[in-house]
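debug: dumping io for the single-chain case to check the tokenizer round-trip. Nothing else runs in this session.
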Amino acid sequence: MVIKKGVVLCSLFLHFFCISQNQVKDSIKLAEVTVSVTKIKNNLINIPFAISVKDYSDFQKSAEQFNLSEYIENIPGIFISNDNNYAQDSRISIRGFGSRANFGIRGIKLIVDGVPETTPDGQSQIDNLNLEIIEKIEIIRGIGSSLYGNSSAGVIKIKTLREVQNNFVRTGFSLGSNQKNKSQLFLGQKHKKTSYTFLYSQTKSNGYRNNSGFKNNNLNATLFKKVNDKTNYGLSFNYVDSPFAIDPGGLTIEEVEMNRKQARERNIIYDTKESIKHLKVSGSFEKKLSNKLTFSKYLFFSKRNFNGNIPVKSGGAIKLDRKYWGLGASLLFKNNFNTQIGFDLGNQKDLRERYFNNEGEIGALVLEQNEKFMNYGIFLVSSFKTNSFVINPGIRFDKNTISIDDRFLADGNSSDKINLNSLNPSLGINYKGNNFNRFFVNVSTGFETPTLNEFGSSPIGSGFNKNLKSQNSVNYELGFSKRFVNNKFKIDLIYFNTNTKNEVLPYEDSQFPGQVFYNNAGKTKRSGLEFSGHYNYNNFLTFKTSISIGKYLFDEFIDNEKNYSGNKIPGVPEKTMFFNINYRNESKFAVSLQLKVIGDLYANNSNSVKIDEFNSLNLKISKVINYKKITIDPFLIFNNILGASYYDNIRINAFGGRYYEPAAKANFYGGLKINFSNE
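debug: decoded output
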């Protein structure tokens, strides 16, 4: 019923605006948006997939730069929670995929400057992501396994500022509620055809809730050289030291009503927190061998040291030493039938140790094992264009080898090895009637293996949980886009339908309180509508909207003799809506007002605990001040200005009713950014 109402509303909306613009001539040339996330670069209006593209060059001047949600949460199909528990990281889901993550990102591929940030087993952490230098983000909202392999039920590709046009020095300091503050220094230097950048930033907060502070130091340096019009290469170095991020834990509804800022008592007793040191070095190379042939490659090495405590005695102190490297290469043939063929190789090695957590003190060793995940994938993607049609077929084969070498033999030898392979085709057809509109349809398949952590999280103890299977999906999309003269008005409407087998879900066991385990649902179904609109009323006033309406259901799911078939998948709202009004005058004074509406969702598989819809109103005020070669950007941000009571995160299927992590009520943030340039 919800989807039917959405169809009627969107149809009326489209009909009204199409009639109002029916006299526009097709001969007027529109600004083109180039997309590369589909491997073969093309204009967005020619691509038969649900793709969102955003530029952040102006946005950065007045952004908090604390969470990735600031950049992408108002894109249809995306839902982000857990922004303020930095011991768990933001949980990002696209059309419900990724909602199962109890920490970090699952099921979604994250790529930064052409290099994978997601590990071969499908995990992504964003505590080492440099939000301050994001230039552009492209997102595939459907399944992209034919392009990127495992855990690609949505792809987020980030481009940072690496190529410098003019020398500059940028500095900034900002602060806000709960002693939240950020300081940063960003340098850019260009010498002939070589660009250099250097960024240092420090981010910290005491947290809204008790026992929830964090600190993060981030260092990033890049070199980008454009040898000539045919050849370029880049080098990047990133180092992160996060000495602490404290986890306040989930609360019961009674505890929330008593004091929404309190931390769970058990989390305080067991000193639940984490510390991280992360290092990544990467390189990329591209050479145009001829007018029709281009070669590109990338390689990287990453090392991550993690120490953390969870509120569990046996195995509650965790030490993880991860080494992750990868490389890839491709050849692009440009002709009437553009084709790219390539491969990706990823190798992940986790040394996992678990100890007794004696109320915050590390005790005896209870688990030690080497976990390995090797991925090798080959892909072929093409794009064939006629006068009105673009056809995009693609196919990819992935071989995944997962092994555990048990080094703690006191409880027996749990060493094991398994292979998980997958073949994923896709096909998209795009029809462009003129320069102003398109219709497209596509079908794509995807797969997602359990992560090493999920395979190893089992009530039986060490070793693989061999009952846990990979999930497989088939996705169908139908889309319509309309552009009006000079991009003054733009609308996009997408319908999607996705069927998944063996969906991986989290749960907690009464015999192991505080620990998260995983099992498979038989089948799930996702379907819905996504609408986005952009209207420039005049040179000063802009309206933007993003609406997602969907159904996310267990189709077949029986667990421990309980039948959840027909229930809604927990952790996913049936609707999200964002409405933005932006004003900017000739003197570069700007005001932005945003209304965010997050619909009902459920906290558990049985749907016995419902989280009610909430609305949040946010206000941003900024000004650009130019003085000779100096630009000063002061800004003020007021979040949740009406003081709505809602939850920053819901812990899915949590034991003992501890589902709730309350969000801050009315809070503010402000700062100043200064740019010195020789421009």
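debug: round-trip ok. The mean pLDDT is 90.
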